[in-house]
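Progress narrative, work stream C.
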Amino acid sequence: MFVASLYFAPALPAYTDLETKSLTLDCTSPSSYLKYCLSEEKCRKYDFLKSITDNHTVTCKVALYGNQENIKAIFESWDVVPPLSFTASTNLFHSDKEGLCTYFQINNVTIGDKQITDPTCPTLTHANTTVNCDDVSFMSYIDAPPMPYEELLTHYQFWMYLFCIIVAWCGLAVTVVMSDTVCFQLLGAAANKYGQQRLFGSLGWGTLVVIAGALIDYASEGDAQKDYTPAFVLTFSILFIDLFVATRLQIEGNEKQSGTAGAIARLICEPRIVLFVICCVVVGISTGILWTFQDSNEGPVEQESTPKCTDPQRWFCVSVH
């Protein structure tokens, strides 16, 4: 039940002070662009852009760094002088994708009291940038780091989620032990068929995982974020079926058996018992590693080569429609 209760847990508030993420400013004619490139194709990466059906405005701070000659040439083409404080707008609905790169056209730039429509440069000029936007979905699209750990701990939603997870996993541990015990009780003299029971249990679990994943993808088609409603509905349905079946199980009375140290030692010395224990340990450790680190394969964020956000000389704002 606590696993299912995660569906009703309140979401974290939108975090508007996301860390910066590097993009490239391509200033050219007849238009200038903010360019974001992937190192490799990622499944469903472009769902966020596909979900946009109309103008979508995002306000970003942008810092230029790198080749100073290129930066100077861009400012001269726009007829402005640093330090900068301006707003630029682009239309995400009309963003262009070429290979692994996505281009966001800058429609206008406002610098102080001056507004520049369709800012351009006579020749193609590149400048490295970092951006800091107030739209969580857009920052997630460009792979910005998530909410800082210290900030996360200040929200009650996190602690509610953690509590539900802890109780759910405690319940899962008890359920696994009890289900194995009940399985042996039902098998009786045919306890050697326990492996077959586990096999069919694993087949059922694996099949439901595939079905749940397919339903989630279907429900999330065209959305920027995953919709896990089908998985929770499936969980509730299977839970009630389990409760119905459990009330119909006929389990004979308890049998108390006393084990000795010698009997346990003899079991440990049997190769098949040792192999079973090793498999349980290896699979358990592997599962923990996968579930913990599956979303941490992007590597550390390089920050030494990007400018500090407090540098007043190179900051401006971008509004993305």
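Work stream C, second folded protein:
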Amino acid sequence: MKVDDRKIFLEWKNFLRPETIGIIPAQGYNPEEKHSIKALKWLRYVSKSKGIHIQHARNGGEKNIGDYRVDGYHKNSVNYVTPLEPRNAFSGGRTEAFKLYHEAKDGEQIKYYDVTSLYPFINKTGKVVLGHPTIITENFDDISKYEGLIKCCVQPPRGLHIPVLPAKINNKLMFSLCRTCTELQQTTTCLHTKTEIALTGTWVTDELIRGQ
């Protein structure tokens, strides 16, 4: 190397200001985030064809859900369902009063419906859970083929005088024929869709069969 070239090289090496020339790392930027070009193209295709915004590595970065990152995320298409929790099948603590006071007229009969606690009777004569359950998460058969707890989305039948299935709505135990009507405390005629009517919860199979 000539003296002049060596002098220029040393000046460049020793006096180059920081952040002047960026050298790309050998593994690229953010090497811990590896992406598939084909996957990104497919996500872009889905986004364009459906006219929706999908967040991914090259469009806002991968979405964090808890401790995990997902390749593609569209808020309105996420239907996150938590695992079945047996404790959620237990309901109690509510006294139903359709009308607190009514004065009967001549010739009128007042009817009162009540459900008496059956714990002692069921504990003595009913079915008891033994052993560990078989957990089923796919390829479901008809409900009548199972015995145990089921977490599902169900449409209560129309026209029942007293609903059968309990549900926690607005942090209260309710017996409802329409989830949305109950959430809004609507007392007028129900015009909601099947999706808006449906209840999601955990019930004993006997309750579901009875409540269909």
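Residues 36-78 form one domain. No further action is required on this item.
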